[in-house]
Amino acid sequence: KAVAEAKALVQRSGSDPAVRNLAAGVLATAGQPAAAREQFNEALKLKPNDPQTLLNLARLDLAEGKTVDAEASFRKLLEADPKNLLGTLGMAVAASAQGNQKEAEKFLQKAVADHPESVDAQLALAQFYLGTRDYGKARAVIDTAGKKWPDNAAISSTGRPAPHNTTLSPTFASGKSRRSTVIMSMDTRPMSGTRTPYASNAPSTLA
Hints:
Elements: H1 2-13, H2 17-29, H3 33-46, H4 51-63, H5 67-80, H6 85-97, H7 101-114, H8 119-131, H9 135-148, H10 153-156
């Protein structure tokens, strides 16, 4: 039903990039990545280099293992907004997936420097160091984060970031009332359900 409604929405308001993003999210959630990609590409035709579309497309690429394509989209996003947190973390994930850990570390450090009040950035860097077995650096980041956010459950409950995967999630927020939060440690399991997790400014009637 959600897919049919998404397609009907595109028929009615397909000239709106936000609608294309919303429809793409529904299609991706329904296990139709090729159709989702088509909608993202149509959105970019309507609004070239749109940050939200680039971010969504990059996440879809990561979910399909197309790390080079994802990196290209993240890079375009950072060209327009050099301090974009999700774009910076995305570059780190893409670099790590390609085996370039030095580049991944560089972008994670940039995320922390650009966003010193971001718990996500700190945890992503700590998780990276744990994954590369650089425990001294991981402990330093964790200690710094613990002093800043002593009540944060991901830090204070065990003295280290809560266990996570080390790849970027293809999961997104839908609508203006929800904000996507993406860090390196989020899950990459296939999306399920009828609510699109992709970010879009279009009003949703699909939930």
